[in-house]
DNA sequence: GTCTATAATTGGATAGAC
DNA sequence: GTCTATCCAATTATAGAC
């Protein structure tokens, strides 16, 4: 961790290959052998470097949404801007969200999903809310946002996916806004 | 299907055991051997009767929400009543929803989730909506409802689970109501 | 650090006797 | 209709040579 030689190149190669494969094909459908092959190393190295398949999954599947510019904007339009932001999230975010969701029946992965959900969908909004029911409203906001991802990405509602984003932003954003500024 | 002798008792025993095990432990964690043992028959019978594990899963994991009495009520209070109805759904519904969700990366199971979502969360509401954007509003209602199940059951938001149902019904129901009667 | 070889298990599905 | 026996494929993880 401290000196430059502590992580061999294979470590990064495995990490990169695992990140891509898990996000593309999910946890169960991705074998340690697949990861090793994609990284150009033997499968046993994967375990040696990361301990277990599950640990590697937890290490790689992090949702990294940087919404600083988003959250800094005016509170009155946060609802619409947040939904717009979510709708334009990139493929990697979708892959990680789906992989975490589908593998969440394993205890430690469930914990990981819980904290990812909290960090990405609850806390950012909660920080900008006032009042004694701010916590409840932020959690319902998390449900609302998660529900859109659920119907678009898990269910795969094609009608919704084909709908002009601006319509969804307007209608669904208004609902989110009602939780932010009641 | 037509005469009484076409389905041996083992058929029903397997069906019942599979329904329970899939809902409790999920698709991947339930083996055909587990199902056979729980039904008191050999594992090979499971395949002989249902063709494959996946087919048995699809046959058993049906969400059966009877919301006739709910949907018949006044439209102005449908939002709150629907959320209340969802929050008090029984364990079986939760198990089936979770199992379908987590196994939905298999193509045919994904199709099953799609139709279950449509039948349980979109169509019932859509039938009571008017206007040219009724379809969009019904689909967003489905997202909203699905999102509540997602955060309660998949994420396992314990704060939300410990919150008085009436508070959730009031706040989240109002959002659903805004889609029903804008 | 890296690979070869393999352990140890488990899974779904099938053939064929009864 | 039901069971015994088995096949075949795939998995994660480890031991040990280099």
Written overview of the protein:
Two copies of one chain form a homodimer. With 182 residues, chain A is mainly alpha-helical. Chain A folds into two domains: 3-60, Arc Repressor Mutant, subunit A, CATH 1.10.10; 68-180, Tetracycline Repressor, domain 2 (Orthogonal Bundle). Chain A contains eleven helices and no strands. In chain A, helix 8 packs across helix 9 (134-154). The longest helix of chain A is centred in the C-terminal third of the chain and has 21 residues, at 134-154. Chain A is elongated, with a radius of gyration of 19 Å. The mean pLDDT of chain A is 95. The A-B interface holds A 26, 28-29, 98, 101-105, 110, 113-114, 117, 133, 135-137, 139-140, 142-148, 150-152, 154-157, 159-160, 163, 167-168, 171-172, 174-175, 178-179 and B 26, 28-29, 98, 101-105, 110, 113-114, 117, 133, 135-137, 139-140, 142-148, 150-152, 154-157, 159-160, 163, 167-168, 171-172, 174-175, 178-179. Chain B binds a DNA duplex (18 and 18 nucleotides) through residues 8, 10, 31-33, 41-45, 47-49, 52-53.
């Amino acid at each position: 961790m401290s000196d430059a030689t502590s992580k061999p190149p294979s470590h990064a190669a495995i990490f990169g290959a695992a990140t891509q494969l898990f996000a593309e094909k999910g946890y169960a459908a991705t074998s340690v052998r697949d990861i090793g092959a994609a990284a150009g190393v033997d499968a046993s190295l994967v375990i040696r470097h990361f301990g277990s398949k599950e640990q590697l999954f937890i290490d790689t599947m992090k949702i990294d949404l940087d919404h600083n510019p988003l959250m800094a904007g005016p509170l009155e339009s946060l609802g619409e801007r947040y939904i717009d932001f979510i709708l334009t999230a990139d493929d990697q975010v979708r892959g990680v969200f789906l992989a975490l969701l589908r593998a969440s029946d394993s205890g430690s992965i469930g914990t990981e999903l819980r904290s990812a959900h909290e960090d990405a969908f609850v806390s950012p909004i909660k920080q900008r809310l006032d009042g004694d029911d701010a916590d409840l409203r932020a959690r319902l906001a998390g449900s609302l946002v998660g529900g859109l991802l659920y119907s678009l990405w898990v269910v795969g509602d094609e009608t919704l996916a084909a709908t002009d984003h601006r319509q969804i932003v307007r209608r669904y954003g208004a609902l989110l806004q009602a939780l932010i500024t009641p």
